[in-house]
Design a protein that fits this description.
The chain is built from one helix and three strands. The protein is an alpha+beta fold and 63 residues long. The radius of gyration is 12 Å and the shape is globular.
């Protein structure tokens, strides 16, 4: 199975899905990047993923 990573430069094209598992255990997933990040707070995992998406978009603008 081939996973396609988005090459869109529009931030709005990327989804951030949040999951809470127990106390202080959160994860965020971006299907367009096929990337999951974990953390201890909801806001933390959202910000981490937003930063990863921005880095991904910037990599296209700089190449």
């Amino acid at each position: 199975m081939n996973i396609a990573i988005s090459n869109s430069t529009n931030f709005e094209d990327y989804e951030i899905l949040i999951r809470k598992k127990g106390v202080n255990n959160y994860s965020s997933y971006c299907p367009q990047l096929n990337l999951m990040l974990t953390g201890t707070e909801h806001e933390q995992v959202v910000l981490l993923m937003q930063n990863k998406i921005k880095e991904h978009i910037e990599s296209f603008k700089n190449s």
